[in-house]
Amino acid sequence: MAAAATLSRLVRLRLYSISRNNGLLFNRVQRRGIAACIDPSVGLSDEQREFQKVAFDFAANEMAPHMAHWDQNEIFPVETMRKAAQLGFGGTCVHPDVGGSGLSRLDASVVFEALSTGCASTTAYMSIHNMCAWMIDTFGNNEQRGKYCPDLCSMEKFASYCLTEPGSGSDAASLLTSAKLQGDLYVLNGSKAFISGGGDTDVYVVMCRTGGKGPKGISCLVVEKGTPGLSFGKKEKKVGWNSQPTRAVIFEDCKVPVANRLGIEGQGFNIAMKGLNGGRINIASCSVGAAQACIQLTRDHMHVRKQFGEPLSNSQFLQFKLAEMATRLVASRLMVRQAALALQEDRPDAVPLCSMAKLFATDECFTICNQALQMHGGYGYLKDYAVQQFVRDIRVHQILEAPSTTLLGGRGAEPVSRLQE
Amino acid sequence: MTARVLVGVKRVIDYAVKIRVKPDNTGVVTDGVKHSMNPFCEIAVEEAVRLKEKKLVQEVVAVSCGPQQVQETIRTALAMGADRGIHVEVSGKDYDSLGPLQVSKILAALAKKEEASLIILGKQAIDDDCNQTGQMTAALLDWPQGTFASELVIEGDKVKVVREIDGGLETIKLNMPVVVTADLRLNTPRYATLPNIMKAKKKKIANMKPGDLGVDMTSRVEVLRVDEPPQRQAGVKVESVEDLVSKLKEAGRI
Description:
By secondary structure, chain A is of the alpha+beta class. Chain A is 50% helix and 13% strand. Chain B: Its main location: mitochondrion.
């Protein structure tokens, strides 16, 4: 297979020269032979496998070689994301008439899981961007859809989702950012915290208070960068997710046309939560992809690393550990895909299932990635090895888009009341 | 303007997979192993689609020979921009012994049937490394051939091909109809886009058997045994030139 060797050598040479400065050579996971049980293409339709293949190829060629560089230099990879958008990843579930790809929830989950093997942080941002585009597509009128969706689908413009505030995270419905009606303008005052992409993105989907207290007083407004009164806090320094900037978004007498409101007054919280259902599936999918990558990296490491005269792959303890990791991975993937199916079929259990899938998968997949780091030994702690970046990047998936701790037991949680019935 | 381009695509074991020989040494393990389109075939499809985008050809037809699974490969070609596909069904023993001779006979018959004036193939497949199909097809059709192409330009009813050969680059001009085989640097294949993958579902793939084309599938080649390459032996370090010479003499090399 001389030609294959030449071809793969040329590909690897290209990788070498790109990643030479960062030495991240150990993350070519997307094309290895995969054991059937953890193969992510099992159970998918032919078309879904085609989508997945493109996403894996893109992740391997365009993202994986740069993920360390983006992380260490805090680069927001605009050009790479635009290339992804050209393939249809900018508006996965948005209708084709405004530039989207019209995929189902399950299709999108498969795509984000595959992309995440190339860089979990960038893929997570792309899933947030996709969520915003979907919200405008679903709840916007035709003017709003036509104005914003095409640019978002092509990633000519980038979007941010603004719900969380310094005083309201889990208790999102208590948000304080006010939007007072003055003629045909809303005047916004307040601030949002931890906004992914904040400051570098162009379109902000903002949940703000137009009415009284509680969820029914909240509306959803689209605010464009450059609007007077819109400013940003300092760029936060984070443990992971470094390929996307995080900033506070500040509104000081920021005037936004009433025409920018999605849906009717008081519908904002509902829009926000509906967006989060899909968002949770996709964040969970990113965790699953990262875990898949880490398992393959660990398996490869176990074949190479020798101790006590044998490769680590001969150790029964480590074999058991790897089997446990594989089990957690498959369980997570099944939960996430089942939730995606339920959501696209509009089943009554869809919302709790999305929350459960997010809770389960983000926790289990972090455990997988953390265990993978452990099994790399001291090498797992070095930034030359991708596994530590996956660990750092997906840790936050357990926190945002509704914290794991409040999903099933906290106040205001959706599924608890149903369980009690 | 040239009407039709025929592009051959082969389904092979993915280039990044670690190959294992079957325990009975009759071949390599293919069950459950990741397969994809031969990389040189991807380059061939990309070139054909580019010609269509430049409006130098009217239609791109992707052809593959093999069992049901090769339809995946044809679909990938359709997602990259080919207009329609032809699946020549070959399975079982015939598929095990399928080689350049049979494929070139099939391609020659199809070229006549489809009235193609240009055939673009990958220069070789990464599983058997034969590098024969393009050449045999040209011979059977009595068409000129431009192999190892790193550049392809259509000039009226002629084709200019720059070939990568051992001595460097050779530029030749060929009269159409012609067979061209694609080398690594001909182009960089595009990713299929999600919308194109969905559109590809609607494109037609015609099914036929080698018998329909009057092709005799008997193989003149029998595979006796497949083995792993020998393990690389450790080298020996020598201290001086005299040592080197005596060691070489010992090994019977000089």
